[in-house]
Q: What sequence folds into this?
């Protein structure tokens, strides 16, 4: 035994199996290469074959609607400001999460999310079910000064959203990019995009006016509110109809 331990082949090289491995497998490089390739391929096949046989991708549901141009604008701002660095958009299927946020997130809810805003960190709460949780005016105040609505919040203020304007020409480019990737939009003309943004924005402006806030439809805050209020909306409607919540 002691002899075997010093010959660099380990203890097994002295056994019958060790000698077989040395001579028949390792001793024949070509055969060994083939055997290794076969062994690795089995792992590959097990992973790859189901992708071609199972139906591809998540379930497609008609309940999921594309983001409106104003929501696209809000989403662009969400990405620009890096909100995903502190907020996830995925409720995991775990008891504590469901109690806190609501239904866990389904794959089909993300159909029009390009790119995904799943996030990987939660300095703040998950936002996938935030749509409809607060009135529009709450979001307005929260963006202006998070501490005014949520005492002790560590979220930074985004007060410039209250002043900066959205440019329908830019949003038209975003809508066109999404349409090119297959999102069904009625039109990708700038006039249509502007009209959609204005009419949806106007309802938010009116909601805010009731809370004594004066602003115009083409401010970034309006687009941000439109986006936040729609998060999880399609999924929530489906779950309510199915009576799961
Ligand atoms: C530094 C981390 C951080 C960043 C960046 C951040 N947030 Fe937050 N957010 C928080 C924290 C913490 C809370 C919980 C306290 C509060 O309500 O302010 C929160 C709460 C929220 C809420 C309320 C969620 C709920 O269910 O009560 C919304 C909506 C929100 N953030 C939106 C945003 C948006 C939009 C952005 C980007 C413009 C953003 N946040 C950027 C940390 C962050």
A:
């Amino acid at each position: 035994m002691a002899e075997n331990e010093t010959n660099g082949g380990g203890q097994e090289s002295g056994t019958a199996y060790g000698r077989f491995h040395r001579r028949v497998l390792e001793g024949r490089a070509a055969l060994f290469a083939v055997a290794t390739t076969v062994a690795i391929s089995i792992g590959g096949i097990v992973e790859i074959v189901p992708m071609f046989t199972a139906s591809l991708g998540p379930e497609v549901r008609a309940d999921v609607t594309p983001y409106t141009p104003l929501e696209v604008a809000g989403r662009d701002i969400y990405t620009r400001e890096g909100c995903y660095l502190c907020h996830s958009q995925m409720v995991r299927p775990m008891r504590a999460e469901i109690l806190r946020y609501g239904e866990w997130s389904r794959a089909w809810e993300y159909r029009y999310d390009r790119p995904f805003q799943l996030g990987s960190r939660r300095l703040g709460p998950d936002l996938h079910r935030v749509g409809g949780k607060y009135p529009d005016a709450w979001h307005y105040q929260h963006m202006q000064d998070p501490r005014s609505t949520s005492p002790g919040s560590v979220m930074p203020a985004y007060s410039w959203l209250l002043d900066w304007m959205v440019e329908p020409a830019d949003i038209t480019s975003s809508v066109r990019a999404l349409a090119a990737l297959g999102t069904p939009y009625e039109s990708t003309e700038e006039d249509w995009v502007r009209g959609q943004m204005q009419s949806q924005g106007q309802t938010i402006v009116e909601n805010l006016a009731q809370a004594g806030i004066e602003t115009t439809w083409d401010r970034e805050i309006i687009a941000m509110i439109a986006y936040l209020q729609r998060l999880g909306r399609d999924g929530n409607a489906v779950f309510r109809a199915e009576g799961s919540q």
Notes: Residues 1-6 have pLDDT under 50 and may be disordered. Residues 78, 81, 83, 85-87, 123-125, 127, 130, 133, 146, 150, 153-156, 158, 224, 228 surround heme C (CB under 6 Å).
